[in-house]
Amino acid sequence: MPEGTVSATPPRGTRASSGKREPDPAPDRVNAQRLLFLDPHTRELYPDRDEETRRAVSALRVTAGQRPDDQQLAELIGELSMKSTEFSSLWARHVVHNCTFGTKRFHHPLVGDLELDFEMMQTPDGSGQGVLMYTAAQGSPSEAALQLLAAERGPEVRVLEPERP
Fold first, then answer.
1. Residue 31 DSSP SS3
2. What is the pLDDT of residue 42?
């Protein structure tokens, strides 16, 4: 399975990352790198898009070095190189860096700007599978926005401050 291929996303995770109520079953919607470089909707989600694309390509280089015989990965890299001049330019720089934690900013179509900490945890079996987790700082506007998304109420929801005990 190529780097960035999403094997499972809970419905709330889909809404949090894309604003969609349900995952899109189309084959071109299941790989994070493919979405980042080829999907116009995904382009709008990242206010720091340049940083996000650099991070994605350098992590993809790490994976390519670890799995040089992975045909699906080679096909993904070839597809992105052919269809995205942005990807091919970044790929040609040969930057290799695996960023497994940090902060990402998103612009969500329903709840606005989110600032979320992330951490990628790899499974210990060496399969390359991992879990990407996002968290918002307690009491932050991003936490309130995530709570709204979790309420599954749709675009008519107003942003409210979360109650604290």
1. strand
2. 87
**Residue indicated by tokens 């079953």:** 25
Q: Beta strands 130-135 and 101-108: pairing type? A: unpaired
**Token output for 158:** 């107003």
Q: Please, which residues have CB within 8 angstroms of residue 42's CB and are 6 or more apart in sequence?
A: 18, 35, 36
Interatomic CA distance for residues 23 and 67, integer angstroms = 28
Backbone angles phi, psi at 88, to 5 degrees: -60, -35
> Would you give the distance in Å from CA 159 to the centre of its chain?
24
Give the residue carrying structure tokens 């932050």.
140
- Regions of the chain with pLDDT less than 50: 1, 6-12, 14-15, 19-25, 27-29, 155-162
pLDDT single digits (tens) 110-135? 889 999 999 988 888 877 778 888 89
Distance of alpha carbon 111 from its chain centroid, rounded? 17
The 10 Å CB-count burial string (b at 16+, else e) for 156-165 is: eeeeeeeeee
Between CA 118 and CA 58 the distance in angstroms is 17
Which tokens go with 135?
Answer: 């968290």
- Tell me: the pLDDT tens digits for 150-160? 876 554 444 44
